[in-house]
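agent> fetching stored inputs for the iron/sulfur cluster docking request
agent> found them:
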Amino acid sequence: MRYEGNIFRPPSEANSLILQATVGCSHNRCTFCAMYRNTSFRVRSIEELKEDIAMARACFGTGVRRVFLADGDPLIIQTQRLKQILLCLLQAFPKLQRVGTYATPQSLLLKSQEELEALRSLKLSILYLGVESGSAEVLKRLNKGVNPEEMVQAGRRAVEAGMKLSTMIILGAGGIELKDEHARESAAVLNRIAPRFISTLSMMVVEGTPLHDEMVAGSYVPPDPRQTLEELRDFLAALEVTSAIFRSNHVSNFLPLAGTLMKDKQALLNTLEEALAGPIPDDFGPQGY
Ligand code: SF4
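agent> prediction call returned; pasting tokens
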């Protein structure tokens, strides 16, 4: 297998074969994101990918069951070409159970329901969507490139195509100023999307990003650890998704939480209230480094 630049994948794809279908991210403008900041976006050729798939088959045999397509946004690839890639994977790995990838809301909105269903039938069955926030103002400040209504449409399109949708919300994305709105509106957007998975992680402000400049200038003030937990509590309290796996256990989170909504919602809220009643370490949560 050949990889270019840094490769990122969700924790749940730790055991998947990673095929780098694109290099970088087609959007690459989110103010907080440093993942592909210095990488020019390109779609890798089908010939290159066929060679990589052949190399993987020679190395791992035909038993590969899960594949993750990197980098930031392979769903932007033209549907015909994506189908070709999926067919090559199915040919090489007859036991293939699922293919996953990151998706931007923009790339989801460029695909029709029928196109997504066709991709789903070729095992592209889990998408990871960085919702980040449901607040119009926070999305605008993050330069996400879509508003909440477009985010809902994008998410719904994946869900209605029968794909598993895994969504991420970033705690602290609105700073102290928009903390309440961020919690409330993020829950409202996810209530409408009704994804299969909901996870939160805490904002890590990376040097060299526009968000870091904003933090240095004082226009973005991250919430402190206690405020971050309060934001998480308010977000969770407003969630009404009836059937979703909830996780707040990213490495950047101080208090790992996991459960099934709505069954475990009250227990999760109780854990949060207990944590808020005690001392909270200073060194977790939204921060610069
Ligand atoms: S869409 Fe995702 S990968 Fe691309 S810049 Fe935004 S956060 Fe980074």
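agent> quick read of the result: The pocket of iron/sulfur cluster is lined by residues 25, 27-28, 30, 33, 35-36, 72, 104, 130 (CB under 6 Å).
agent> awaiting further instructions
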